[in-house]
Write a structure and sequence with these properties.
Strand content: under 5%
Helix content: 40-55%
Number of strands: 0
Shape: globular
Order of helices and strands: HHHH
Number of helices: 4
Structural class: mainly alpha
Length: 77
Amino acid sequence: MKCQICGKPRQEDLFSYVTGEPVCCICKLNYIGGGPTTSQQIAKVRAVLGLKDGEYLQQDHAAEARRILGRGEKKGE
């Protein structure tokens, strides 16, 4: 199985692997929020992002995680 928004394989995302959520940790934080994820929430997010069946959001998971955690590279280091 993979994230139903970005397509990241579940075994590569500790959050979804452990919790059984149908979305990865990045998509959960950015698009779903707290509480259990429903298929209606996923459908709404996919519609807003303009994703068709079989299409997934392309994102750099490492860069997005750094942004969320506030650990971006500092200039001059």
